[in-house]
Design brief:
Length: about 350
């Protein structure tokens, strides 16, 4: 057997077999430092190992439109879940069922139309006809005849439109018109957040107020042209010109004097207690002066005003310039005189 093994080795040595090495296999050599070897030992060449790039292609499976439409829609289910959670939640929600009421004005401006009567206007605005007359006494001479085109002041609720004078209190105003202080304060449009701080010159609505009837007019004659001489009562004519409207049952508040944009004088000395008004209706811009002793005078339809509330004026001092503001057919002065709050015939107190 030893001879057979020896013969096989001998035969392989005499006839070697050659095996081809694939060219794609790289040679890899490594140099590892070993302890005890000299640093100058020769290094074996290193052949880098490189891998050939392999392209990567990702192919997504095709999805048709029908498949997308058939996908599950969870929106409705999500909403149902949220609504159920809200119903189950212990959170109180306040639901406001009433709107804040609209702000009511002090009064409305109304232009008289053909066929209007005090009754029809009163019904339109929901107030009694007497309030139409009381708030437009300088315009309505005959309750049965209204002048087309006149601009009326119609209170938004039954009451009297009043201009606050200097030093006035709500109690005094309420007594003057037989009204209640609480109702004046309670009317929101008056804006009386502090009833003790009335704004002088402001207009307020005296809710439920009534006007006291004027006394019977005097038929005392007066000259057509006047001068500035003071009467025994201490009053002078505010302007020197012709009287165009006398104090009569058809014109019961005062007199009208022709005054084409001239200076208007204080009929007597006193304190200016009101400056203001509405330039579009009624008296227009007007001034009131308190002369003491229960006497007051009023100057209406002014185009400009030269004094202020609270100012003291002397007899003959210019208060402003006459004009045609408010209800007026031309420039003139409407002049009134009151004693203890009651309208008087100015001619009784003028020279």
């Amino acid at each position: 057997m030893a001879l057979a093994l020896f013969a096989a080795v001998l035969t392989g040595g005499l006839f070697p077999v050659t095996i081809e090495t694939p060219t794609a296999t790289p040679a890899l050599a490594a140099s590892l430092p070993l302890p005890g070897l000299a640093a100058a030992a020769p290094m074996v060449a290193v052949t880098s190992l490189e891998a050939a790039p392999v392209p990567l292609t990702v192919v997504a499976p095709a999805v048709t439109q029908d498949a997308l439409l058939a996908a599950a829609d969870t929106t409705a289910a999500t909403l149902n879940t949220l609504q159920q959670a809200q119903r189950n939640a212990s959170v109180s929600v306040e639901i406001i069922t009433a709107r804040e009421p609209e702000r009511v004005p002090l009064y409305y401006r109304y232009e008289v139309q053909q066929g209007d009567t005090m009754t029809s206007i009163a019904e339109r605005f929901g107030v009694a006809s007497r309030y139409i007359g009381w708030n437009n006494a300088d315009l309505i001479i005959d309750a049965d005849v209204l002048a087309v085109g006149n601009m009326l002041q119609v209170p938004s609720v039954p009451g009297i439109i009043h201009g606050v004078r200097a030093g006035e209190t709500l109690t005094e105003i309420a007594i003057q018109y037989d009204a209640k202080v609480s109702e004046i304060i309670g009317f929101a449009a008056n804006g009386l957040s502090d009833p003790n701080q009335l704004r002088e010159g402001a207009l307020i609505l005296v809710v439920g107020g009534k006007r006291l009837p004027p006394p019977a007019p005097s038929l005392r004659p007066s000259p057509t042209f006047v001068d500035r001489e003071a009467s025994q009562f201490g009053f002078i004519w505010p302007v020197v010109d012709e009287v165009t409207s006398w104090f009569t049952p058809h014109h019961p508040l005062g007199i009208d004097i022709n005054a084409p944009y001239v200076g208007v004088a204080a009929s007597a000395g006193g304190k200016v207690v009101f400056v203001g008004g509405d330039p579009s209706v009624s008296y227009g811009l007007y001034i009131e002066v308190d002369h003491g002793g229960g006497y007051q005078t009023l100057y209406a339809h002014m185009s400009s005003i030269h004094v202020e509330i609270g100012q003291w004026v002397e007899t003959g001092q210019i208060l402003g310039i006459s004009g045609s503001t408010g209800r007026s057919t031309g420039p003139h002065l409407h002049f009134e005189l009151k004693r203890n709050g009651i309208t008087q015939n100015p001619l009784t107190f003028l020279p």
